[in-house]
Amino acid sequence: MRLKVTRRGFLSVRTGVVFLFILVWLLPGYALVQSGTGFIAGLVTDEHGQPLAEVKIRLYHLESKTEIKIRTNNKGEWSAEITPRGTWYLDFEKTGYEPRRVCVQVAGKQARPSWLETRLKNLEGLVMTEEIIQALEKANTLFSQGSLEEAFLIYQNILTESPDSYAINYYLGNCYLEKENYDQAIDCYQKVIDKNPQFGPGLISLGNCYLKKKEIEKAIACYQRLDINRIEDPQLLYQIGIVFFNRWLFSPALKYFQKAVSLQPDFPDGYYQLGLTCLLLGRYSQARLAFQNYLKYDSETDRSIQVKNFLEFLKTRT
Length: 318
Fold this sequence. Notes:
Elements: E1 3-5, E2 11-13, H1 17-23, E3 38-45, E4 56-61, E5 66-71, E6 77-82, E7 86-93, E8 100-106, E9 114-119, H2 130-144, H3 148-161, H4 168-178, H5 182-195, H6 200-212, H7 216-224, H8 234-246, H9 250-263, H10 268-280, H11 284-295, H12 302-314
Parallel strand pairs: 3-9
Antiparallel strand pairs: 1-2, 3-6, 4-5, 4-7, 7-8
Helix pairs in contact: 2-3, 3-4, 4-5, 5-6, 6-7, 8-9, 9-10, 10-11, 11-12
C-alpha cells in the first residue's frame, strides 16, 4: 500500500482499505494511576523575576480526580505533599496576570521535593488600580462559585469605569461561554484578540466557541495562530491535535501529539494518537515507537489488541 501526504498534511489514499481500518479504531483511552506519596514545591515570579505572593494554585490529578488548592507565601514560594504520584496538572492564577497551566511528573521516595519555577505574564489591557484589582478578584471568586450574573455585572462595571481595560472582555466572554451564548462570547474574545493578537487564552477560548458552533474551519484558524511553544498543558495539546486529526490535517496534528507526550510521558491516549498519525504519514519507525510506549500503560484492553495488530502490520514496513 502506498500513502501520499500533501504539503498541507492531507492524506490521499490509493488503496483505502488500511486507512479505513485504522480510523475505525478510535476508542477511549486508558491511564495508569500510580500509588505512593510525592512532594513538590516551587517559586512563582513575574516576568522580571520578582516573587508573587497570594498566587492561587490548583493541583489536579486527572486519573484519581484528586484536587489540592494552595497559595504562595510572601516569598512567592509554595509546597505540597501529594498522593498519588504520577502526572499532576497545576493551574496558577493571580489577578492582573495571564492564567497558566503546567504539567509535572511527581515520583515517590524522593530525596528532596521536585522544584518548579513558574513565571506569570502580566495581562495586557488592564488598568491596574487597587479598586479594579479588588473588583476583579471579587468577580473572579463569584465566577468560580457559579454566580455568573453577579460576576458579569462586576466585570461590566469595571469596563464601563475603565474603557481602556479591554482585557475585561475576556472575562465577559467566559461568562457568555458558560451560559452557552457563543455568539456573544465570540464577540467579547475577538475584542481582546484585536488588541492583543497573541493572547493565548483568548485564542483558545475563541476556537472552543467555534467548535461548539461546529464551525470547525474557524476553530482551526484560531488554533493555528497559537504559539505551541507557550502551551504547557498536555490535555490541551492533545485536544487541539484531535481537531486537526479529524480534519485529516495530520502534519499539524503530529506536532501537538508529540509535545503532549513529551510533557506527559504516561499519556497512553497521546501515544495512541501519535502512533496513528505517524502511521498515516508513513513515519513507520516513529509509529512503532509510539505504539510500543502505549503498551507500557495498557496491555490488556481491547485497544491494546488493536495496537498489537498495528505493530504486526508495521513489521511489514520499514
